[in-house]
Every structure is written in structure tokens, then in C-alpha cells.
Amino acid sequence: MALLEVSHLKKFFQVKTGLLHAVDDVSFTLEKGKTLGIVGESGCGKSTLGKTIIRLTDPTSGKVVFDGQDVATCSAKEFKKIQPNMQMIFQDPYASLDPRLTVMELIAEPMKIYKTGRKEKIYKKVHDLMDLVQLAERFQNSYPHELDGGRRQRIGIARALALNPQFVVCDEPVSALDVSIQAQVLNLLQDLQSELQLTYMFITHDMSVVKHISDDIIVMYLGQIVEKSPAKELFKRQYHPYTKALLSAIPVPSLHDRPEKIILEGELSSPINPKNHCRFAGRCAFCTKECRQLPAPELKELTPGHFVACHRSEERKGELNT
Amino acid sequence: MAKITTSAVKKINSRRKGEKRGRSTPAKDAWRRLIRNKMAIVGMIIIIALILMAIFAPLIAPYGYSDMDVINMLSGPSKEHWFGTDQLGRDMLSRCIYGARITLPIAIFTVAVACLFGGVLGILCAYFGGQFDNIIMRILDIWGSIPGIMLSIAVVAALGNNMYVLVIGLSVGAVPNMARTFRGAIFTVVDNDYVEASRSIGAGNFRIMFKHLLPNAVGPVILAVVQLLGVEVLCVSMLSFLGVGVQPPTPEWGSLLSTSKEFLNTASYLCIFPGIFIVLTVLGFNLLGDGLRDALDPRLK
Amino acid sequence: MEEIIKKSAPVVEIKDLVVHYETYDGVVAAVNGVSFSIEPKDVLGLVGETGAGKTTIALSVMQLLPMPPSRIVQGSIKLDGEELIFPSGAKKAEKKAMEKKMQEYRGKKVSMIFQDPMTALNPVQPIGDQISEVIELHEKMSKSEAEGRACDMLEMVGIRAERYKDYPHQLSGGMKQRVVIAIALACSPELLIADEPTTALDVTIQAQVLDMMKDLRNRFGTAMLLITHDFGIVADICNKCAVAYAGEIVEIGSVEDIFDRPQHPYTIGLFDSIPSLTKDVKRLTPVQGLTVDPNDLPQYCSFYDRCSKCTEECKGCDPKLVEVGPGHLVKCIFAHKEDEE
Predict the structure, then answer these.
(1) What's the pLDDT at A227?
(2) Residue B187 — φ and ψ, nearest 5°?
(3) Within an 8 Å CB–CB cutoff, is residue C71 touching chain B?
(4) Which element (helix H / strand E) includes C73?
């Protein structure tokens, strides 16, 4: 059985000019021990999706079934029991740590809140966690501003693991780090996953990172899923024009084998009060008059395991599969 | 240290050899910057001197504050009476020294009470926002539009003329500003990621407000508190000058000014000395406040 | 052996530049002996991580470093053959005259675009006026002529000229950055310094902006100093590349030199630590350790603590840049000539 099952999740925000569709009808399942990569650009709703799943913000509608229980609609008291199982690693390793607390206090805090044991037991667990994330013990009384980005992010990881969660949402955990440190932290996350049997939801805008770490990938655009497929498959074949453009836009660090760049026209349309047709229509090289009239396309399985939300995918199947 | 040794590098190296490099926390850095500011040190010395003077008044003052030297009534500054005597022969120096025992505690308690009530209101407003914030802020706007002195006089008139009521009256006048200060300070930190991170590990509202937000917003708050202390010293003096709160023969500086004003032409020293004490106190708090603002300015980090 | 037809003067020539930030708590050695030059029409990609000193180098060329706390300890920067740095004994009047000259050069001879487009534009001035402002400052034109040229620039960067009177907040991030680029190129400068110009933009918008920058460069013939941490961008738009670490250039050469035959362990390490879109790798090979502290640089090779190939010999001296191929220099005692493989 899947550890996490999200069905028709929606999160809307009321803003001055209307209703902002941050997350609009997202559904997927996640098996235990796997990593689901959520990729997309700014404004696609991936961060909001992560925060809604662990109920940092209440969903507008939909179900989030974690280990058999719907955490989207349960009471706050019920959720308190499940919360230790669903934790988050945040993007900015400086802003996400209280600058007035030492490393020891930061990592111990979740355990103090949930009263997992006596002081000595908690402090021992902190040392174990620091060991696990390769943070030297001598830093236990340091403050975040005294450490560099890579070490600060390790503190964030240790804090997220303090309550022995099964599921961790990683919200752009390496985006703010230098390239040479990114690799260190990515390796660490992979090691932790196999050692602790963690299930990850890995949110990023960086396609090369998501390819490296995910088993399955979801591509989001303006709050909706446009393509869903196993990671290896997605990089061989992309069925949605946005995914294709996204992939081709990434600057390749090599002088040879440079792919043809698809340059998208125009800008993102507004997520506030969106019209009910394909949200990518204005920028799509393949869009037709019908694409702008028919309601927003649903996610359909085009080939086994590979889903796409595009009106023309069936019709273009032959050309896409070459 | 650096690949090329310049004069600046040599200077830092020699300083570092002498210094013991301690841990650096945001508080320690701010403290170090504060004590480098000469004006702030002057302010601190003044305040500390006044507080010590208040505490050790019986040991420092040459006479009791109501001892009457009947022979030397209204005599100017002399060897026996450095600040002269008033119309009842009481030594001005001793009365000024004992005056600190009245003014300073009232001002300090007033600020403490205003911080407590105003602070809690401000934090709640900034944290919960929305309609709650709107309603409370409008109430505070109305409350704050009444001049503080008038409010204090009204409270004292209603509840009686003693020091405890004076504290209540003064703090009532100071609460709206304090609430706004705390609210503004919390606003600067409430959007930080670590607030969300705390929620994700199960922290409740109370913990977030008082363990995470308040300690990080303390900079502008400390500044406002120190400045308010100076303001309240003036307010206490003003009220006792008007005859509200502290009554003679209690030697509060403001009431000393009040009883001395009829002698402004004949024995002006009776007004000058208490006035100097008031000015010094307010100056001390203001200098300290300015130094604190510079020390806590994050741009200088 | 290439024939040297006619060597024109480099647009900017930096020699042995050393810049320190002097604060009460320490001296940050931001730039430690950097030398390179940019010829006309070159696009030099300056690659490095945080703390490498890239922005400091850029600001030095623009003479926009806040002095104090920064200080150009030594070195020379020649813009179009003219020396910009004064020796420390210079008189105040000379310095003032230089500053006046720099004001004329900024925008006309050398322009800079910064990383964050959100804050680079004046929020209370229409975008068209911000472009015509720089034109009016440097060219002798009437107001309407300047406005006409500003409209042309807008069209060139892909924004309809009708949007002349729009305010920055009405534009998206990508469009704001285009306006910034338009301002920078309005007076056809010889050198454009771009400090991480697309880092704050989404990948698809980044592709649009890079494409436009390539097109404009071809049209105007501007030389560029492109500061970035992304090798992909360097491969896309640059013809030369310099890798910076701890305020020094550790390797410099043509993009072919850097991408196909890198020699410095840091350059190789950087390439190895990037996850690849084409290869399937189980584990990444990061560069071990952490960036060196610029407050506390060693007297020997700054990369020693992180280098996988270092030996005891490396602690004995601070290596100099060594030429391993035409135009390809490496700062390592193990650098070997390319044809000696």
C-alpha cells in the first residue's frame, strides 16, 4: 500500500483581485522508501503543495491519506499525533534556523516539544543525529551564523529527523548552496534515505538535481500537474510541450552534444481566477483553437506509467514516441 | 592571514594576539559595538551613577531629607550646604539625592507595566493579524490620541493620590506606544522561515511568540524601552510639578521645582539643582538609547 | 601557430589586483593577485562560488567599491589603455578628477548589470525614462531623440515600445531584467559586466534572456565579463572562461581549454560535482571540505585543504599561473603542458 495518497488536492488563496489557484486538483501516490520529485518554475505551486501536505497550511479541499489516515481533514489534535511522521527540510538554511539558538537547542527542540524523553536522553539523541548528518560534535554550542551554508543545512536535516519521521518533504534543500556543497548534501540525503528507509518528496526547480535523486517525477505548471512519469523515462521522452521546453532550456555544461533549445514565447499567465482551459495554451508551440476553448485537460496515461495532461497528446503520440 | 601583509593586517594581528577571541553571538557583537561608542558610555555612566545614588542615598546624603536647619533657611550654596537650603532650612543636596529614590523607581515600574500590557497586546496583534489586529489597533489609536498626561491625571483623580496609582496612571498613558513598538518589532521577524519550521516540528503559538519571535525582535524593543524611561522621568516630574501624585514633603525633583518656583528670582539655585538632575537623567537615557540604536543596527554588521 | 594579424588593445586589462576589506573584526582578502584581460568582442565567463571574489573584481573595474572599508592594496586596471587606479600617494585633486572621468565612463564605456532585477530599477520612474536617462547623460541628443532611441532599445530587448510609460512593478522578473540590459547597452559600451544576470530568473525565462543577450552581443559587438556559478551558461554564451577560488584565478583559457582539458583540481572537481542530465551517476563526487575563510588565508596554495591531488610540496609555496597551452593558464605546481600528455 502506498504510504502517501493525495487525491484532488486544492489550495486556493483569497487575494485582493480574486482567487489564487496555488494548487489546483493534484493527485498522486507515493510508495514507502521512494523519492517523488516535484519540478517546476516559480509560481507553479510546488512549495505550496509540500506545505499543504504536511498541513503547515490547511487545504481548501481534497484528501491527503498518510498511512491510512486522512490528514487533510482530521482535527488538529489528531494531526498532532501524526505530525512527527511528516517533517520538512526548508530551502534557506539561514532563515529557517532561529539565529538565537545553538545547534544543540535547534535539533533538540522538536523532541522537547513532543516530550520524547528526559534531558539526557534528548541530548544523546542530538549527538547521534549530528553524527548521522556528519556534523562534528564540537559545533553543538555554535550559532547558525557562525557556520557555512552546507553545515546549516545539515542542522536543518538533523532537526527534521529528530522525531524519526517516515516521510520528509525536501523543499529546494540544495538550491541555496554552492555547487560543490550541493553534491555533499545530496549524497547525504541519499545515504539517509537508505539507512533510515525514508520516503522523500523532493521539490526543486533544477532538472538535473531532480533526475539524480528521484524515482518518479511530477512536472507542475500554474498549480496543475502537466506530466507524471518515472524519472528515467521522463528524460528519454517528454510528452508535454512544457516539459520539453523546460528540459531544453537548461544550460548544458558541455561544448558537445548541445540539444536544440526551445524558447518559449511570452510569460506565465496569472494564477488568479484562471480561465477554464489549458493554462499553457498561450505559450505552447502546438496549441490549436480547440486548446483555448476546451476545459483544462485531464491527466491521462499515455504509455504505461507515463501520464500527461494535454489535449493533443493522443493525436501526437506517434511523433512523440520517436 | 592574508596573502599580502598590509598595515591593516599587521594592526589586526597584533590586536588579536592580545585579545582573547571569545564566542560571537549577536548579543555579544552588539555589546562590543556599544562600548566602542563614547557617548553611549557617558550615558551608561550617568545612569549607573544615578541608580547607585538612589540605592545608597542614606549613606551619601549629608543630611536627612526633612532635617531642618532653622538658622540657615534660604541660604545659598555654602560649605555646609553644597546646594544651599530651601525655605524650611532643608538641605537641597540631600533632597535631590533622595529624590532619585522616588523618580527612578516610579519611572522604572511604569515602563515595566507598560511593557507587560503593551507588549503582550503588540505581540498578539502582530502574530494573529487580520481582524483581531485591526480592532485592537483602532482601540489603541483612540486610546493613544488622549494626551498621556491627561489620562494619568484622570486616573489619579479617580483612584487617589499616591505613588502606586501614579504608576498605573503613567503606564496607562504609555501602553499604546509600547504596543505599537512591540507590534512593529515582531512584524520584522514574523515572516522568517524559522517560524514555519517551528510549526512543522509541532511548536504551538505561545512557544513561537515568546521563544522565537520576541527574542529576535528585541533590538527595537530595547531601544524603545530605554527611551521611554527618559520620557517617564520627565512625566513623573511634570505630574509632581502639577501637584499630582507625589505630595510634599516627599522630595521628588518635580515637586521640588514646584515648591521652589516662587523663589525663582530670589533663590534661583533652588530650581536649578533639581532641574539639573532631571536633565542629567533624561540625557543619560537618551545617550544610551542612541548608542543602543547604533549598536543594534543590522546594517553595520 | 596562429598568425597574429593585428593585435588591438584589450578593452580591459587587470594586473595583480589585490583588494582587501578592512573591518574592525578582521581583514577580508577578497581579491589576491588577479590578472586577466578582455579583448574586444570577447565574452569571458568568470566562474566561482560564493567568496571567490568575482563581484569584487567587477566592482573594481567599475570603481564602485565602497572605500572604506574596501581598499585596492595594489594592482592596475586599464580600461581602454587608461589606468584607473591611483597609487596610494595620489593627491585628492587627482582622485576627484578620476572620479569625474569614471562617471563619464560608466554607462558609456563600461556598463554593469546586477543580479537582482527586482531592486535594480527605480520603482517610481517609468521604464522608458530610465533608459533615456542614461542616453541623455552621455550622448548629445535632444529629449525626443533620446526617447526615440529608448523605444528602439525596448524593441530590441523584446518589449513593445508602447510599454514605455509602464512602471517596473507592472513587469515580470524576466522583463525587468531585459529593461536593465537595455539600460546597460543603450550607449553601446565597449564592455558589459553582467553579475549573475539570470540567477534570479526561472529556467525558461533564463533561456529567453540568454538568447537575447547573445543576439545583442552580436549586434553591438560588446565585450562581456559574465560572472556566474553555472558552467552551462558559460558553455552557451562565452568564448573564454576563468575559474576563481578564494580571490585568485586558478585556471583561465578558452572554453575549449576549460571544458575539454581542465587541469586545476578545483575546476575538475566542480565539473565532477554537477549532476548530469545525460549520464546516470549513482553518487556525485563533491569537492570535499568547505570554502576557505577569506579572513584567514594560508601563505601556500589556498586550495590545499580541499585538493585531492595535493602533496607536502604544495605547502611549500604559493603556485603561480603557468601557461600550459596557448592562452591556457593553470595555477598549480602539477600543471603540465598540453602536448606533454
Answers:
(1) 94
(2) -55, -35
(3) yes
(4) strand C70-79
Burial class of residue C185 (count of CB atoms within 10 Å of its CB; 0-12, 13-18, 19+): buried
pTM, entire model: 0.83
Using CA atoms, how far apart are residues B164 and C239, in angstroms rounded to an integer? Answer: 79
C12: pLDDT strictly greater than 70: yes
Residues in chain B: 301
The Cα–Cα gap between C17 and A65 comes to 60
pLDDT in tens, B186-197: 998 998 889 999
Within 8 A of B24 by CB-CB distance, chain A residues are: 143, 146
Question: A229 with A54: CB under 8 angstroms?
Answer: no
Q: Which of A284-288, A307-311, C1-5, C10-14 has the lowest mean pLDDT?
A: C1-5
Please determine, for the modelled complex, whether the ipTM score is greater than 0.90: no
Given a cut of 70, the residues of chain A with pLDDT beneath it are: 1, 322
Of B295, B212, B239, nearest in space to B106 by CA: B239
CA distance C327 to C225: 17
pLDDT of C2 > 50? The answer is no
What is the rounded distance in angstroms from the CA atom of residue A307 to the CA atom of residue A158? Answer: 35
Instruction: State the burial class of residue C90 (Cβ atoms within 10 Å of its Cβ: 0-12, 13-18, 19+).
Output: exposed
- Partners of C21 in beta bridges: C28, C70
Contact by Cβ (8 Å): C151, C128: yes
Q: Are A312 and A233 in contact (CB under 8 A)?
A: no
**Is residue C59 scored above 60 in pLDDT?**
yes
- Of A124, A191, A118, A216, nearest in space to A162 by CA: A124
Rounded average pLDDT over B129-144: 93
Beta strand pairing call for A18-30 and A4-15: antiparallel
Q: Does C35 touch chain B (CB under 8 A)?
A: no
Averaged confidence pLDDT in chain C: 86
- What is the DSSP secondary-structure string of B3-51? SS--HHHHHHHHHHHHS------HHHHHHHHHHH-HHHHHHHHHHHHHH
pLDDT band at C1 (very low <50, low <70, confident <90, very high): very low
Do residues B232 and B148 lie in contact, with contact meaning Cβ atoms separated by under 8 Å? no
CATH of C18-84+92-340, one of 3.40.50.300, 3.40.50.1970, 3.30.70.1280, 3.10.180.10: 3.40.50.300
Cα separation, A59 vs A23, in Å, equals 9
* Single-letter amino acid code for the residue at A181: I
A148/C290 Cβ within 8 A: yes
Question: Which chains reach chain C with 3 or more Cβ–Cβ distances below 8 angstroms?
Answer: A, B
Cell of A145: 551564523
Q: Which long-range contacts (CB under 8 A, 24 or more apart) does A210-213 make?
A: A210/A37, A210/A39, A211/A37, A211/A235, A211/C275, A211/C277, A212/A186, A212/C275, A212/C281, A212/C284, A213/A35, A213/A37, A213/A186, A213/A189
Cβ atoms of C158 and C177 within 8 Å: the answer is no
CATH fold for domain A4-237: Rossmann fold (3.40.50)
Of A187, A232, A268, the CB nearest to C286: A187
Nearest to C255 among A251, A255, A257 (CB): A255
Q: Cell numbers of C58, please?
A: 567587477
Structural domains of chain B sorted by starting position, each given as residue range(s) with its CATH number in brackets: 29-60+88-300 (1.10.3720.10)
Handedness of CA C324, C329, C333, C334 (dihedral sign): negative
Instruction: Please tell me the predicted confidence (pLDDT) of residue C244.
Output: 93
Whether the Cβ atoms of residue B127 and residue B205 lie closer than 8 Å to each other: yes
Looking at every residue in chain A, the average pLDDT score rounds to: 89
How many CB atoms are closer than 10 A to CB C279? Answer: 7
Q: For residue A234, how many C-alpha atoms fall within 13 Å in the half-sphere facing its CB?
A: 33
Cross-chain residue pair A99–B216, CB shorter than 8 Å: yes
Instruction: With beta carbons under 8 A apart, name residues in chain C contacting B12.
Output: 26-27
CB contact under 8 A, A143 and B193: no
